[in-house]
Amino acid sequence: MFYRLSGTYHTSYQADRKLWKIPTDRRLVIALLVLALLAPLYVSPLYLGSYVLPWVIWSAAALSLTLLMGLAGQLHFGFAAVMAIGAYASIHLVRAGVPFELALLLSGLIAAVIGAVFGGAALRVKGLYLVMATLAMQYLVDWVVVNIPAISGGAHATLRTPAVSFLFMPIDSLASRYWLALGWAVLLTVFFMNVKRTSFGRALVAIRDKDFAAAVIGVDPFKTKLMAFFTSSFMGGVTGAILAFCFYRAVTPEQFGFNVSIQLVAMVLVGGLGSVIGSWLGAGFVLLAPIFLTNIISALAASGWVPVSQNFLSHLPLMIYGAMIIGFLLLEPLGLAKIYDNIRKYFLVWPFRHARS
Amino acid sequence: MAYFLELLISGALTGLMYSLVALGFVLIYKSAGVPNLAQGALVMTAGYAVWLVMSWGLSVWIAIPIAAAIMFGFGLVVERLLLRRMVGQPVIMVVMLTLGLEILLRGLVPGVLGSAPKPIDLGIGFAPIIVGDVFINRTSLYGGIIALLLVGASLLFFRTRLGTKLRAVSDDHVSSWAVGISVERAIGISWGLAGIAAVVAGALWGSSQGVDWTLSTLLFPAVAVVILGGVDSVPGVVVGGILVGVLGTVIPGYLDSIAGGSTRDVVTSLIILLTIMVRPFGIFGREDIERI
Fold this sequence. Notes:
The complex is a heterodimer.
Chain A: H1 13-16, H2 23-37, H3 39-42, H4 45-71, H5 79-95, H6 100-122, H7 127-147, H8 149-152, E1 159-160, E2 165-166, E3 169-170, H9 174-195, H10 199-209, H11 211-216, H12 221-248, E4 250-251, H13 258-271, H14 276-302, H15 310-331, H16 335-348
Antiparallel strand pairs in A: 1-4, 2-3
Helix pairs in contact in A: 4-9, 4-12, 4-13, 4-14, 5-6, 5-7, 5-12, 6-7, 6-12, 9-12, 10-12, 13-14, 14-15, 14-16
Chain B: H1 2-32, H2 39-54, H3 60-81, H4 91-113, E1 129-131, E2 134-136, H5 138-157, H6 161-171, H7 173-178, H8 183-209, H9 219-229, H10 234-259, H11 263-278
Antiparallel strand pairs in B: 1-2
Helix pairs in contact in B: 1-5, 1-6, 1-8, 1-9, 1-10, 2-3, 2-4, 2-8, 3-8, 5-8, 5-10, 6-8, 9-10, 9-11, 10-11
C-alpha cells in the first residue's frame, strides 16, 4: 500500500547501515517529529499538559530502563529511586546557583554513581536476587529522601522547582517545558537506536544472552554490567530532573515510590523489551489506557448502565494495570513493539504475503 | 533492660509471624522454582476470605478450613491458568507475572469486598500476657506458636510420599517427568499449599491489624526472611524470620526517636542487601541457587 515495495533490497553497505532503511519509514518518522514539534500549536493546553507531556517524559524513562532491562538483561525494580535522585539533585543544584544545563548533567552523574554503586553490589547475583537488591535500593533511597530534611524539606513537604532557563530559553510556559522534554526524549531515542550498533551495545546484548559465553569471547561481564547500570542510571537521573522541572514542578517523595518503579517495569514489558518504538508505545499505553478505561467505566456507572460502587471505581486502575501486565505476558510476550512490527510487515509488501524486512 | 527484653520478645514473635508469610514463598520456590511476588496479595486475599466466611455467621474454627479450601482451589487455578503457560520462559517473565497477579489482586479484592479494614476475631483476646516486667502481645504469641507448628508440619510433609515428589520436581523438571511424576500437578499442589499457609497468615495478621490491602505489604519483610534464611529452606524461614523480626524491632526501638521514624524498612532493606552481597544463597540455602 503506502510502502509500495516488493521487499527490502539494499545494493550498498551504506544503504544497509541506515537507521531507517525504507523511504516510507523515513518519511513517517519525519512527519511524526514535525507533528510532535508542532503539538503546542494544535493540542489544547489541557491535553498537552496532562497527556502528551507525561507521555513524552515517561517514554524517556522507559528508554533509560530498557537499556538496562532489554539490552543488558539486568532487572531493576527500583528505577523510580534513580529518577528521584536525579530530580532532587537537580533541584538542589539549581538552588545552589548552578546553571540549569550543568545541573541536569550533574544530577544525571550523581544518579549514575549511586545507581552503579547499588548495581555493583548486586552484580554478583542474577534474576530474583537482582530484583530484591534493587527493591532494597528503592526502599533505602525512599527513606533517605523522606527522613533527611535537607533533601526533601521535611517528611511531608513539597519542594518547588525554581524558575530556570535552558540555553537562554526560559522554561516557564507549557510549550517550552514540552519542547525541553521532547528534546531530551528525542535525544535518548537517537542515542538508543545508535547504541545498539556500537561495540558497547553489542557487548550488552552478549551479556544478556549468556554472560559466561560473552566472557569467553572477550567481553568483561562485570565491567559491561557496571557500564550498563551507569549509563542507564545517568539517563534515568536526567529524566527524573526533566520530570521534576517540566511536569511536576513541585516534588514530593511519593512521586517516586515503589509503585512508580513497577509502572516503569510494566511500560518496558508492555512495550517490548529492548525496543525503541516499544518504549514509546508502552509508556503511552500504560499511562493512558487505565485513565481512558476508568473514564469509560465511570461514565457508564454514572449513567446507571453498570452497577458498580465508588470503592470499585477507585480500585479499577490497579485492576486494569495488573490485568494488562498478565495479559501481555501471556498473549504477546514481545509486547506492543511486536504487534506494531507484525502490522508493518503485513503492509510492507501488501497485497502479497511474505516480507523479508 | 525490660524495654530491651520486651523489644526482643515482641520482635521474635513478629518475626515468626513474618515466617508464616515467607513459608508460602518457600513452598512455591522449593517445588516450582518460581519466585512468588504475589504471596503478600495471597495473604491479603486469604484474610478477606476468612472475613467473608465469618460474615456468613460461621465460627472461626469452621471459617478457617473453608477459607483454606477456597485458597487451595485458588492456588490450583492460578497455576493452571497462569503459571503453566510460563514453563521454560525466562525468570523475568515469571517474576513479572506474579507481580501482575499481586497488583490485580490488590485492586480486585478490596475493590469488590470493600477497602475499609475488616476485623477478624479469633477469640484470642487482646489483654497482654505479663511475665515479670515484660508485656507480650497475645496474638503474636499464639501466632508465633502456630508458625512453629506449621513449619514443623511442612518439614514432616516434605518427608511424605507427596512431599518427596515435590522435592524431586524442585530438583529437575525433566527428570521428574522421566520417572513418571506429574510436574504440573506437583506445582499446582505447591500453589495450593501456599494458599493454605496464606490463610493462616491472613487470619493471624488480620486479627492483629485488621484485614485490608496493607496485608499485601507483608511481602517485603517476608522477602527479607526468605533471602536471609535461604530461598529453598523451610527451617531457614524460622531462623530468618526471628532474625528479621528481632533486628527490625530492636533497632527501630532505639533509633526511631533519633532518625525520625520508619527505620524498620531500612533495616529490612539492609538485611536484604547485606545477605545478597555476603551470602546470596542465605543461611540454609543450597549454593547452586545462585545460578537462576
